[in-house]
Every structure is written in structure tokens, then in C-alpha cells.
Amino acid sequence: MGIFVVRCVNGTVRERQVFGVASAATVTVSVDWIDRYGRRVDVFDAPHVAMVQLSGDAVGALERGSILAASPPHG
User: Fold this and answer.
1) Cα–Cα–Cα angle for 45, 5, 57, nearest 5°?
2) In a domain, 45, yes or no
3) What distance lies between CA 71 and its chain's CA centroid?
4) What's the rounded Cα separation, in Å, for the pair 70 and 11?
5) pTM score > 0.90 for this model?
6) 24-75 pLDDT tens trace
7) Cβ atoms within 10 A of the Cβ of 53, count?
8) Which domain holds residue 24?
């Protein structure tokens, strides 16, 4: 689990959304919560920035400039 400042460059980011990490095709992270300017929100979109808490296998490997891509829902 880690807290990151992220920029959405396309589409929409939602709580509980799952993302794949571009540098590691088989690992994912999920959005636990989103904070925009000190206020918790459920969603934010491009071209905005927010502070998010991410959890998952790849959190420890994330670094400045990491690219995340939305993963399709399973089921």
C-alpha cells in the first residue's frame, strides 16, 4: 500500500479501479481512495491530478513516471 500523486491523462479514475503497470504486464494495483485538494472523492478525470492510495503487488515497484493502464473488469 502506498500514497501517490497521480495525473489522469485519459479517461476517468475511480475508487476500486484496477490498473496494470506498463513495466510489468502481469501485476496490478487498485485505487483504495482518491483525495482532491483535501477532499475525498469517488472519481476524477483528465487532465486533473489527485493524491491516491494504491494497493497491490506492484506498489513497491512504482516510481516517478510509472505508467498505469486501466485493466478490464474480470467476470
Assistant:
1) 95
2) yes
3) 11
4) 9
5) no
6) 666 789 999 999 999 999 999 999 999 999 999 889 888 898 888 887 665 4
7) 16
8) 2-70
